[in-house]
Design a protein that fits this description.
alpha+beta; Beta-Lactamase; Heat Shock Protein 90; five-stranded antiparallel sheet; five-stranded mixed sheet; 11 helices; two-component regulatory system; kinase; Sig_transdc_His_kin-like_C; transmembrane
């Protein structure tokens, strides 16, 4: 029986290892996370698919252009090698002549360069008219010089409104007998039709992918909701079991404590070993009763019962702090701790007086138990804009920085041996944090080893000139 409280602690820790969130917020967060990851994975797959389609079509379109230009360059270069000159053929005619008032420029542009990269004159029917039609961007010899060093090369240049983007192909002319380079034929073609097709494809991919992704998000919300239903049912049953078990344990534990206390009143008539056993029974039963009460409170917090059903009264937080100081004075006097409350009055908040007072008493009890003889505990209240703050400051042993992020976890104790000695269960701060969250506030810890600890409660302020109702402690 002496090990039963530890068993209950391990059971409750395993069953409630998640954070102390309400059922609604917990499953809402999980629901959104599942939907997000489902949509993100599908979105990534869609993006990869669209990129593969787009660049594959782009490669096929530009490959056909390159093949056409290479074929025309070979046709142009063939007879020139026989005649000893590779640049004496007329420019291929424009297959799509424009109106008489403004002839369209040739669809295929041709320019010749010698082995040093200098442009050669092109023998055409009207050379000056042809040269005027070729944009300067096309005649840039950077691609020619690259081809002279690395064989045939391609690139894309922008000629602005004249031709738009032109796909250029530099074909190196080599003497078949001497194997020497005679020059380069630079041939190019506007890729406006290909770019138009790619733009249409891009619009189709983006619109289709967007619609599919929106459908995936909607489907993800539906599927994740369906998937969370068994977990939600298991969660509800688990919390109901914990609440029912804790509630059923309270009555026999109360009788056990009472019976042990009655027997200890006759300790003078009992053997010493029986007295020791009864004292152990009373101590463990008291610890178990406190643990059962805390488990019941946390189970109600998890199920949202406290948040939904706690009273909504207008309270003076400073008066609540003063009431908590009066209730904790006896414990503080036993440990030679100086206890006081200070702050402006009134500071209005909306909440449940019993729950908020319970929270303050939990923090106050910890500040007293983990303090030094002749130490101090101060409860300070203040208001900043739309928030009201209550800070419990002590001059105790303090807490190491590595423990601060875990404060408020269930059954977590900084000093387990000392916490057990002073009767702690490791659930007080979890309950306090859950109550403050249920009231729309926050709980923060600031501490330095050997310099004391400050616990800050922040709640929404209620600036209303109404008479508050404050629970007075006995």
């Amino acid at each position: 029986m002496l090990h039963l409280p530890r068993f209950l602690e391990r059971l409750f820790r395993r069953e409630t290892s998640y954070s102390s969130e309400s059922e609604t917020s917990l499953f809402k967060r999980l629901h959104l996370h599942l939907t997000f990851w489902y949509s993100a994975v599908l979105g990534g797959a869609l993006l990869i698919f669209c990129l593969v389609i787009y660049f594959s079509v782009q490669y096929l379109l530009f490959s056909s252009v390159r093949g056409e230009l290479a074929t025309q360059a070979q046709i142009i270069a063939g007879p020139r090698r026989e005649s000893g000159s590779f640049c004496n053929r007329q420019q291929p005619p424009n297959p799509r002549p424009g109106p008489a008032i403004r002839p369209m420029p040739p669809r295929v542009l041709v320019a010749c360069f010698d082995q040093s990269g200098q442009q050669l004159p092109t023998e055409t029917a009207n050379e000056q008219s042809f040269q005027a039609l070729i944009p300067g961007e096309f005649l840039d010899n950077s691609l020619v010089k690259s081809a002279l060093q690395r064989d045939n090369q391609t690139d894309i240049v922008d000629t602005g409104d004249t031709y738009g983007h032109i796909y250029r192909y530099a074909h190196v002319i080599t003497n078949p007998e001497t194997r020497t380079v005679e020059g380069v034929i630079l041939i190019g073609e506007s890729i406006a039709p290909q770019e138009s097709a790619l733009n249409i494809l891009l619009i189709v991919l983006i619109s289709t992918g967007g619609l599919v992704l929106l459908g995936a998000v909607a489907g993800g919300l539906f599927l994740s909701h369906r998937a969370m239903q068994p977990a939600r049912l298991a969660f509800t049953r688990q919390q109901s079991f914990i609440a029912n078990a804790s509630h059923e344990l309270r009555t026999p534990l109360t009788f056990l404590c009472a019976n042990a206390e009655i027997l200890l009143e006759e300790r003078n008539y009992l053997p010493p070993e029986d007295v020791t056993l009864l004292e152990d029974i009373q101590t463990e039963a008291t610890h178990m009763a406190a643990l059962a009460n805390n488990m019941l409170t946390l189970a109600r917090l998890d199920m949202g019962d406290i948040k939904l059903h706690h009273e909504h009264d207008i309270l003076d937080l400073t008066a609540l702090a003063e009431s908590a100081v009066r209730q904790g004075k006896a414990l503080a006097d036993q440990r030679d701790i100086h206890l006081r409350a200070e702050g402006p009055k009134p500071l209005y908040v909306i909440g449940d007086p019993i729950l908020l007072e319970q929270t303050i008493l939990v923090l106050l009890e910890n500040a007293i138990k983990y303090n030094r003889p002749n130490g101090q505990v101060v409860l300070c209240t203040s208001q900043e804009n739309d928030t009201v703050r209550l800070e419990v400051q002590d001059t105790g042993i303090g807490i190491a920085p590595e423990h601060l992020p875990r404060l408020g976890e269930r059954f977590y104790r900084v000093d387990k041996a000392r916490s057990r000695a002073v009767g702690g269960t490791g659930l007080g701060l979890s309950i306090a944090r859950g109550i403050i969250r249920a009231h729309g506030g926050s709980l923060q810890f600031v501490s330095q080893p050997e310099q004391g600890t400050a616990v800050k409660i922040t709640l929404p302020a209620m600036n209303a000139p109404l008479r508050p109702r404050v629970a007075e402690g006995g």
